[in-house]
Amino acid sequence: MKPAWPIQLGGAVAVAILAWLVVFGVNYQSFAVAVPLQIMGLVDDLAVAEQLTIVQATVRVKAINAKKVKVPGAISAVLDCSSLLGVGSYHLAPKIESKLEDAWVIDFHPKDILVSLVPKVTGTVELVPDVVGYPASGYSLGEIRIAPSTVEMLGPNTLVGANSVAYVPVVVSGQRTSLSTIGAPQVKDQLGSPIVNVSFNPPQVAISVEIKKGDSYKTVGLEPAFVNELAGGYWISLIEFEPPALTLRGDAKRLADISILSTTPIDLAGHSGDFRDKVAVDVPMGVELVGTNLVDVKIIVRTASSNRKLVLLPTYTNITEGLSVTSISPPTVTVILAGAPAQLSQLNRANTSLDLDLRGSLSGVNVVELASSMFRVPEGIEVVSFEPLTLSVTLTKAES
Q1: How far apart are CA 52 and CA 195, in angstroms?
Q2: CATH number at residue 135
Protein backbone atom coordinates (compact mmCIF):
# COMPACT_ATOMS: atom_id res chain seq x y z
CA MET A 1 0.00 0.00 0.00
CA LYS A 2 1.31 3.48 -0.94
CA PRO A 3 2.11 5.81 1.94
CA ALA A 4 -0.54 8.50 2.60
CA TRP A 5 1.84 11.32 3.40
CA PRO A 6 2.35 12.56 -0.20
CA ILE A 7 -1.40 12.98 -0.59
CA GLN A 8 -1.65 14.70 2.74
CA LEU A 9 1.26 16.98 1.86
CA GLY A 10 -0.30 17.87 -1.49
CA GLY A 11 -3.58 18.68 0.19
CA ALA A 12 -1.85 20.87 2.73
CA VAL A 13 -0.04 22.77 -0.03
CA ALA A 14 -3.30 23.32 -1.92
CA VAL A 15 -5.00 24.60 1.21
CA ALA A 16 -2.08 26.93 1.91
CA ILE A 17 -2.17 28.32 -1.64
CA LEU A 18 -5.93 28.81 -1.43
CA ALA A 19 -5.58 30.56 1.92
CA TRP A 20 -2.86 32.80 0.50
CA LEU A 21 -5.08 33.71 -2.46
CA VAL A 22 -7.97 34.53 -0.15
CA VAL A 23 -5.76 36.73 2.03
CA PHE A 24 -4.25 38.35 -1.07
CA GLY A 25 -7.67 39.03 -2.50
CA VAL A 26 -8.83 40.62 0.74
CA ASN A 27 -5.67 42.67 1.30
CA TYR A 28 -5.24 43.90 -2.29
CA GLN A 29 -7.75 45.73 -4.46
CA SER A 30 -7.79 47.14 -8.00
CA PHE A 31 -8.54 50.79 -8.74
CA ALA A 32 -9.01 52.82 -11.92
CA VAL A 33 -6.82 55.92 -11.86
CA ALA A 34 -6.72 58.84 -14.31
CA VAL A 35 -3.00 59.62 -14.57
CA PRO A 36 -1.89 63.01 -15.98
CA LEU A 37 0.38 62.45 -18.98
CA GLN A 38 3.83 64.05 -18.90
CA ILE A 39 5.71 64.89 -22.10
CA MET A 40 9.47 64.52 -21.72
CA GLY A 41 12.47 65.08 -24.00
CA LEU A 42 10.71 67.22 -26.61
CA VAL A 43 12.91 69.40 -28.84
CA ASP A 44 12.60 73.06 -27.77
CA ASP A 45 11.16 74.46 -31.00
CA LEU A 46 8.55 71.70 -31.48
CA ALA A 47 5.13 71.10 -29.93
CA VAL A 48 2.67 68.20 -29.84
CA ALA A 49 -0.43 69.06 -31.87
CA GLU A 50 -2.81 66.61 -30.17
CA GLN A 51 -4.70 67.72 -27.06
CA LEU A 52 -3.15 65.24 -24.63
CA THR A 53 -4.39 64.97 -21.03
CA ILE A 54 -4.52 61.64 -19.19
CA VAL A 55 -3.89 57.89 -19.34
CA GLN A 56 -6.42 55.56 -17.70
CA ALA A 57 -4.56 53.02 -15.54
CA THR A 58 -5.71 50.04 -13.48
CA VAL A 59 -3.63 49.74 -10.30
CA ARG A 60 -3.45 46.81 -7.88
CA VAL A 61 -2.68 48.08 -4.38
CA LYS A 62 -2.75 46.98 -0.77
CA ALA A 63 -6.13 47.94 0.69
CA ILE A 64 -4.65 50.05 3.48
CA ASN A 65 -2.80 52.15 0.87
CA ALA A 66 -5.81 52.66 -1.41
CA LYS A 67 -6.06 56.41 -0.77
CA LYS A 68 -2.41 56.91 -1.68
CA VAL A 69 -3.12 55.83 -5.27
CA LYS A 70 -5.07 59.07 -5.80
CA VAL A 71 -2.23 61.29 -4.53
CA PRO A 72 -0.69 63.29 -7.41
CA GLY A 73 2.59 61.70 -8.49
CA ALA A 74 1.88 58.28 -6.94
CA ILE A 75 1.35 56.86 -10.44
CA SER A 76 3.23 58.46 -13.34
CA ALA A 77 2.62 58.35 -17.08
CA VAL A 78 5.48 59.59 -19.27
CA LEU A 79 5.60 60.06 -23.03
CA ASP A 80 9.29 60.08 -23.99
CA CYS A 81 9.75 62.21 -27.12
CA SER A 82 13.56 62.37 -27.02
CA SER A 83 13.84 60.20 -30.14
CA LEU A 84 11.60 62.52 -32.21
CA LEU A 85 13.68 65.15 -33.97
CA GLY A 86 11.47 66.80 -36.57
CA VAL A 87 7.99 67.78 -37.71
CA GLY A 88 5.84 64.74 -38.47
CA SER A 89 3.58 62.04 -37.01
CA TYR A 90 4.82 59.28 -34.74
CA HIS A 91 3.44 56.44 -32.61
CA LEU A 92 4.67 56.22 -29.01
CA ALA A 93 3.84 53.99 -26.06
CA PRO A 94 3.48 55.77 -22.70
CA LYS A 95 5.54 54.47 -19.79
CA ILE A 96 3.44 53.92 -16.66
CA GLU A 97 5.06 53.47 -13.24
CA SER A 98 3.93 53.17 -9.63
CA LYS A 99 5.91 55.09 -7.02
CA LEU A 100 4.18 53.25 -4.16
CA GLU A 101 5.23 50.13 -2.31
CA ASP A 102 2.80 47.20 -2.60
CA ALA A 103 1.20 48.77 -5.69
CA TRP A 104 1.68 48.05 -9.38
CA VAL A 105 0.04 48.90 -12.68
CA ILE A 106 -1.73 45.89 -14.20
CA ASP A 107 -3.23 47.63 -17.25
CA PHE A 108 -3.54 51.03 -18.94
CA HIS A 109 -5.12 52.71 -21.97
CA PRO A 110 -4.24 53.90 -24.52
CA LYS A 111 -1.19 51.75 -25.11
CA ASP A 112 -0.30 53.59 -28.32
CA ILE A 113 -0.51 57.37 -28.74
CA LEU A 114 -0.31 59.22 -32.04
CA VAL A 115 2.00 62.20 -31.66
CA SER A 116 2.05 64.90 -34.35
CA LEU A 117 4.92 67.34 -33.96
CA VAL A 118 4.47 70.89 -35.28
CA PRO A 119 6.40 74.15 -34.85
CA LYS A 120 5.97 75.73 -31.42
CA VAL A 121 4.34 79.18 -31.26
CA THR A 122 3.84 81.61 -28.39
CA GLY A 123 1.00 83.86 -27.29
CA THR A 124 0.10 85.99 -24.28
CA VAL A 125 -2.69 84.80 -21.98
CA GLU A 126 -4.39 86.45 -19.02
CA LEU A 127 -4.29 84.56 -15.72
CA VAL A 128 -7.52 83.88 -13.83
CA PRO A 129 -7.77 82.18 -10.40
CA ASP A 130 -9.43 78.75 -10.31
CA VAL A 131 -10.59 78.52 -6.69
CA VAL A 132 -10.56 75.02 -5.18
CA GLY A 133 -12.57 74.40 -1.99
CA TYR A 134 -14.09 76.87 0.46
CA PRO A 135 -12.81 78.85 3.44
CA ALA A 136 -13.66 77.62 6.94
CA SER A 137 -17.18 78.24 8.22
CA GLY A 138 -17.57 81.88 9.22
CA TYR A 139 -14.91 83.07 6.76
CA SER A 140 -15.21 84.35 3.21
CA LEU A 141 -12.99 84.78 0.20
CA GLY A 142 -11.69 88.26 -0.47
CA GLU A 143 -9.44 89.59 -3.23
CA ILE A 144 -7.13 87.21 -5.11
CA ARG A 145 -4.05 88.66 -6.79
CA ILE A 146 -1.80 86.88 -9.29
CA ALA A 147 1.60 88.27 -10.29
CA PRO A 148 2.40 88.56 -13.08
CA SER A 149 -1.16 88.87 -14.39
CA THR A 150 -0.19 87.62 -17.87
CA VAL A 151 2.27 84.97 -19.06
CA GLU A 152 3.49 83.53 -22.34
CA MET A 153 1.81 80.32 -23.46
CA LEU A 154 3.90 78.01 -25.66
CA GLY A 155 2.59 75.14 -27.75
CA PRO A 156 0.87 74.27 -31.04
CA ASN A 157 -0.97 77.06 -32.83
CA THR A 158 -4.27 75.14 -32.53
CA LEU A 159 -4.15 75.58 -28.75
CA VAL A 160 -2.23 78.83 -28.33
CA GLY A 161 -4.45 80.62 -30.84
CA ALA A 162 -7.64 79.28 -29.25
CA ASN A 163 -6.91 80.38 -25.67
CA SER A 164 -6.68 83.93 -24.35
CA VAL A 165 -7.02 82.91 -20.70
CA ALA A 166 -5.19 80.40 -18.49
CA TYR A 167 -6.22 79.32 -15.01
CA VAL A 168 -4.18 79.09 -11.82
CA PRO A 169 -5.52 76.63 -9.19
CA VAL A 170 -5.89 78.33 -5.79
CA VAL A 171 -6.66 75.99 -2.87
CA VAL A 172 -8.57 77.69 -0.02
CA SER A 173 -10.13 74.62 1.64
CA GLY A 174 -10.68 75.27 5.37
CA GLN A 175 -8.58 78.44 5.27
CA ARG A 176 -9.00 80.95 8.13
CA THR A 177 -6.17 83.36 7.34
CA SER A 178 -4.91 85.13 4.25
CA LEU A 179 -2.13 83.34 2.43
CA SER A 180 0.64 83.80 -0.10
CA THR A 181 1.71 80.91 -2.29
CA ILE A 182 2.82 79.98 -5.79
CA GLY A 183 0.83 78.30 -8.53
CA ALA A 184 1.25 76.86 -12.01
CA PRO A 185 -0.89 78.17 -14.90
CA GLN A 186 -2.85 75.61 -16.91
CA VAL A 187 -5.53 75.26 -19.56
CA LYS A 188 -8.10 72.47 -19.51
CA ASP A 189 -10.06 70.42 -22.02
CA GLN A 190 -13.87 70.23 -22.10
CA LEU A 191 -13.83 67.54 -19.38
CA GLY A 192 -11.76 69.68 -17.03
CA SER A 193 -8.47 67.79 -17.40
CA PRO A 194 -5.28 69.89 -17.73
CA ILE A 195 -3.84 69.92 -21.25
CA VAL A 196 -0.21 68.82 -21.03
CA ASN A 197 1.17 69.75 -24.45
CA VAL A 198 1.44 73.45 -23.64
CA SER A 199 3.84 75.24 -21.30
CA PHE A 200 4.08 78.68 -19.75
CA ASN A 201 6.80 81.27 -19.23
CA PRO A 202 7.23 81.80 -16.34
CA PRO A 203 6.06 78.32 -15.31
CA GLN A 204 5.00 79.52 -11.83
CA VAL A 205 3.39 82.71 -10.55
CA ALA A 206 2.87 84.34 -7.14
CA ILE A 207 -0.60 84.23 -5.58
CA SER A 208 -1.95 86.24 -2.66
CA VAL A 209 -5.38 85.36 -1.24
CA GLU A 210 -7.37 87.48 1.18
CA ILE A 211 -9.48 85.50 3.68
CA LYS A 212 -11.97 87.62 5.63
CA LYS A 213 -13.90 86.86 8.77
CA GLY A 214 -17.61 86.91 8.04
CA ASP A 215 -20.15 85.46 5.63
CA SER A 216 -19.96 85.22 1.87
CA TYR A 217 -22.48 86.73 -0.54
CA LYS A 218 -23.99 85.40 -3.75
CA THR A 219 -26.53 86.88 -6.20
CA VAL A 220 -28.84 84.36 -7.88
CA GLY A 221 -31.70 84.45 -10.37
CA LEU A 222 -35.37 83.61 -9.82
CA GLU A 223 -37.53 80.72 -11.00
CA PRO A 224 -41.35 81.07 -11.01
CA ALA A 225 -43.68 78.51 -9.44
CA PHE A 226 -47.29 78.29 -10.66
CA VAL A 227 -50.63 76.94 -9.51
CA ASN A 228 -53.77 76.39 -11.61
CA GLU A 229 -53.97 77.15 -15.35
CA LEU A 230 -54.64 80.04 -17.71
CA ALA A 231 -57.93 80.30 -19.55
CA GLY A 232 -58.23 77.87 -22.44
CA GLY A 233 -56.30 78.86 -25.55
CA TYR A 234 -53.76 81.08 -23.73
CA TRP A 235 -50.08 80.64 -22.83
CA ILE A 236 -47.32 82.46 -20.96
CA SER A 237 -45.10 84.37 -23.37
CA LEU A 238 -42.78 86.16 -20.91
CA ILE A 239 -42.14 86.50 -17.17
CA GLU A 240 -40.47 89.63 -15.78
CA PHE A 241 -39.19 89.95 -12.19
CA GLU A 242 -38.34 93.19 -10.40
CA PRO A 243 -35.72 92.90 -9.01
CA PRO A 244 -34.53 90.23 -11.48
CA ALA A 245 -32.14 88.66 -8.91
CA LEU A 246 -31.65 88.53 -5.13
CA THR A 247 -28.56 88.38 -2.92
CA LEU A 248 -27.95 85.69 -0.31
CA ARG A 249 -25.57 85.73 2.65
CA GLY A 250 -24.07 82.69 4.34
CA ASP A 251 -21.36 80.07 4.37
CA ALA A 252 -19.43 79.91 1.09
CA LYS A 253 -19.81 76.15 0.76
CA ARG A 254 -23.56 76.33 1.32
CA LEU A 255 -23.95 79.19 -1.16
CA ALA A 256 -22.09 77.21 -3.82
CA ASP A 257 -24.96 74.71 -3.90
CA ILE A 258 -27.56 77.40 -4.64
CA SER A 259 -27.93 78.52 -8.26
CA ILE A 260 -31.54 79.77 -8.35
CA LEU A 261 -34.40 80.71 -6.00
CA SER A 262 -37.99 79.52 -6.47
CA THR A 263 -40.89 81.91 -5.87
CA THR A 264 -44.02 81.23 -3.92
CA PRO A 265 -46.82 79.99 -6.26
CA ILE A 266 -48.28 82.42 -8.81
CA ASP A 267 -51.98 81.76 -9.38
CA LEU A 268 -52.79 81.52 -13.11
CA ALA A 269 -56.48 80.65 -12.67
CA GLY A 270 -58.65 82.14 -15.41
CA HIS A 271 -56.19 84.77 -16.66
CA SER A 272 -56.52 85.63 -20.36
CA GLY A 273 -54.32 88.72 -20.47
CA ASP A 274 -51.19 90.26 -18.96
CA PHE A 275 -51.23 90.59 -15.17
CA ARG A 276 -49.00 91.50 -12.22
CA ASP A 277 -48.48 89.89 -8.83
CA LYS A 278 -46.25 90.13 -5.75
CA VAL A 279 -44.42 87.01 -4.58
CA ALA A 280 -41.79 85.96 -2.07
CA VAL A 281 -38.98 83.45 -2.57
CA ASP A 282 -38.23 80.24 -0.72
CA VAL A 283 -34.94 80.88 1.11
CA PRO A 284 -32.91 77.67 1.60
CA MET A 285 -31.92 76.68 5.12
CA GLY A 286 -28.53 77.86 6.30
CA VAL A 287 -28.48 81.15 4.35
CA GLU A 288 -30.12 84.55 4.73
CA LEU A 289 -31.71 86.87 2.19
CA VAL A 290 -30.19 90.35 1.93
CA GLY A 291 -33.07 92.83 1.73
CA THR A 292 -36.85 92.41 1.64
CA ASN A 293 -38.38 89.12 0.58
CA LEU A 294 -40.81 90.66 -1.89
CA VAL A 295 -40.64 90.54 -5.68
CA ASP A 296 -42.89 92.15 -8.31
CA VAL A 297 -43.71 89.83 -11.19
CA LYS A 298 -45.30 90.61 -14.54
CA ILE A 299 -46.78 87.79 -16.62
CA ILE A 300 -47.18 88.38 -20.37
CA VAL A 301 -50.02 86.23 -21.74
CA ARG A 302 -50.65 85.45 -25.41
CA THR A 303 -53.37 83.54 -27.21
CA ALA A 304 -52.49 80.10 -28.49
CA SER A 305 -51.84 80.27 -32.22
CA SER A 306 -51.26 78.09 -35.24
CA ASN A 307 -49.18 78.65 -38.37
CA ARG A 308 -50.09 78.87 -42.03
CA LYS A 309 -47.89 79.12 -45.11
CA LEU A 310 -48.84 81.36 -48.04
CA VAL A 311 -47.14 81.96 -51.39
CA LEU A 312 -47.50 85.60 -52.45
CA LEU A 313 -46.92 87.51 -55.67
CA PRO A 314 -45.35 90.89 -54.78
CA THR A 315 -47.16 94.12 -55.60
CA TYR A 316 -45.34 97.41 -56.26
CA THR A 317 -45.73 100.99 -55.07
CA ASN A 318 -43.90 104.28 -55.68
CA ILE A 319 -42.29 103.27 -58.99
CA THR A 320 -40.23 106.14 -60.42
CA GLU A 321 -42.11 107.92 -63.18
CA GLY A 322 -41.09 106.67 -66.61
CA LEU A 323 -40.00 103.22 -65.35
CA SER A 324 -41.84 99.91 -65.22
CA VAL A 325 -41.18 96.49 -63.70
CA THR A 326 -40.14 94.02 -66.39
CA SER A 327 -39.00 91.09 -64.21
CA ILE A 328 -38.62 89.94 -60.62
CA SER A 329 -36.50 87.07 -59.33
CA PRO A 330 -37.68 84.90 -57.75
CA PRO A 331 -41.25 85.65 -58.80
CA THR A 332 -42.91 84.63 -55.49
CA VAL A 333 -42.28 84.86 -51.74
CA THR A 334 -43.22 82.19 -49.18
CA VAL A 335 -44.36 83.56 -45.81
CA ILE A 336 -45.24 81.78 -42.55
CA LEU A 337 -48.02 83.51 -40.62
CA ALA A 338 -49.22 82.88 -37.05
CA GLY A 339 -52.55 83.55 -35.43
CA ALA A 340 -55.77 82.05 -34.20
CA PRO A 341 -56.86 79.06 -36.31
CA ALA A 342 -60.15 80.75 -37.25
CA GLN A 343 -58.30 83.81 -38.60
CA LEU A 344 -55.70 81.77 -40.45
CA SER A 345 -58.40 79.89 -42.32
CA GLN A 346 -59.70 83.20 -43.74
CA LEU A 347 -56.37 84.36 -45.19
CA ASN A 348 -56.12 84.85 -48.94
CA ARG A 349 -54.39 87.11 -51.45
CA ALA A 350 -57.16 89.65 -51.12
CA ASN A 351 -56.42 90.39 -47.45
CA THR A 352 -52.75 89.38 -47.34
CA SER A 353 -50.07 90.84 -49.61
CA LEU A 354 -46.42 91.80 -49.98
CA ASP A 355 -46.04 95.45 -50.95
CA LEU A 356 -42.65 96.45 -52.37
CA ASP A 357 -41.85 100.14 -52.01
CA LEU A 358 -39.65 100.93 -55.05
CA ARG A 359 -39.21 104.62 -54.22
CA GLY A 360 -35.79 105.74 -55.50
CA SER A 361 -35.10 102.56 -57.51
CA LEU A 362 -33.34 103.20 -60.83
CA SER A 363 -33.35 101.63 -64.25
CA GLY A 364 -31.70 98.22 -64.20
CA VAL A 365 -31.54 95.49 -61.55
CA ASN A 366 -32.44 96.60 -58.02
CA VAL A 367 -31.92 94.28 -55.02
CA VAL A 368 -34.72 94.81 -52.50
CA GLU A 369 -34.29 93.55 -48.93
CA LEU A 370 -37.54 92.24 -47.49
CA ALA A 371 -38.83 93.07 -44.00
CA SER A 372 -41.81 91.91 -41.95
CA SER A 373 -43.29 95.41 -42.19
CA MET A 374 -43.70 94.99 -45.97
CA PHE A 375 -46.37 92.30 -45.49
CA ARG A 376 -49.98 93.53 -45.20
CA VAL A 377 -51.87 91.15 -42.92
CA PRO A 378 -55.15 91.32 -40.95
CA GLU A 379 -55.02 92.48 -37.32
CA GLY A 380 -54.11 89.62 -34.99
CA ILE A 381 -51.91 87.88 -37.57
CA GLU A 382 -48.12 87.93 -37.13
CA VAL A 383 -45.35 87.33 -39.68
CA VAL A 384 -43.16 84.50 -38.36
CA SER A 385 -40.70 84.10 -41.23
CA PHE A 386 -40.34 84.45 -44.98
CA GLU A 387 -38.07 83.45 -47.84
CA PRO A 388 -36.21 84.57 -49.82
CA LEU A 389 -34.80 87.51 -47.87
CA THR A 390 -34.14 89.60 -51.01
CA LEU A 391 -35.71 90.05 -54.44
CA SER A 392 -34.07 91.25 -57.65
CA VAL A 393 -36.41 93.70 -59.39
CA THR A 394 -35.56 94.85 -62.93
CA LEU A 395 -36.85 98.27 -63.98
CA THR A 396 -36.76 99.55 -67.56
CA LYS A 397 -37.88 102.76 -69.21
CA ALA A 398 -41.51 102.59 -70.20
CA GLU A 399 -42.22 102.92 -73.90
CA SER A 400 -43.79 106.25 -74.76
Answers
A1: 6
A2: 2.170.120.40
